[in-house]
Amino acid sequence: MLGVVNRILLAVTGLLLLAAGGSLLAASWPLGGRHAPLLTEEARRRHWHAEGWWWWAVMAGLGLCVLLSLWWLLAQLRRSRLRALEVDTGDGAFALLRGRALEEAVTAEAAAVDGVARCRVALRGRRGSPALRIALELEPHAVPADVLAALAGPVLTHARTSAGLAGLSAQARLKVASHKAQRVA
User: Fold this and answer.
1) How far is the C-alpha of 21 from the C-alpha of 16, rounded, in Å?
2) Which of 150, 139, 132 is CA-nearest to residue 175?
3) What distance in Å separates the CA atoms of residue 139 and residue 7, rounded to the nearest whole number?
4) Tally of CA atoms within 13 A in the half-sphere of 170 that contains its CB
């Protein structure tokens, strides 16, 4: 969702800057020419002094822009990783499992699968519904179906049981490691 908001804000800002640059380059609309002032004396009297609601509308618009900008800034700074999970210990108490510990354990198990060159894991979501994002870089000889079967089978099953979760969704992205072409002489 945040990526979509970032793209929309970037597109709107780009269009506004393009329109402003084009109008200044043309210097005809909305300006009266190169040597004409930006606001004429009559426009200043009519819009800036006579209307009492004008300043309230400008301040409300600027305040809304400031609030939206602060929301966007805080959304950029917010961490999207899940810090900890509650694990039922079986005696009525709960223990906290650090998200990084689960990520490291899944990374170690997935990297040990035959055909995996590198692995990165991120725990996302909420405490009630955690999800794993797994980025796998496969070796050139690896069979993607076998790697996915090993990942979906023992690796994720072990992560679910060790964290005490009934379900742990996972999204895997596969990429083949670059390699030099073999030459036959």
Assistant:
1) 8
2) 139
3) 34
4) 25
Give pLDDT < 70 ranges for the chain: 1-2, 24-25, 27-35, 38-39, 47-52, 55, 79, 185
Contacts of 112 (CB under 8 A, 6+ apart): none
- Integer Cα distance of 167 and 62 in angstroms: 46
CA atoms within 13 A on the CB side of 5: 9
Handedness of CA 112, 115, 118, 121 (dihedral sign): negative
How far apart (Å, rounded) are the C-alpha atoms in residues 89 and 67? 44
Task: Supply the pLDDT for residue 79.
Answer: 66
pTM of the predicted model as reported, rounded to 2 decimal places:
0.58
CA distance 106 to 131: 12
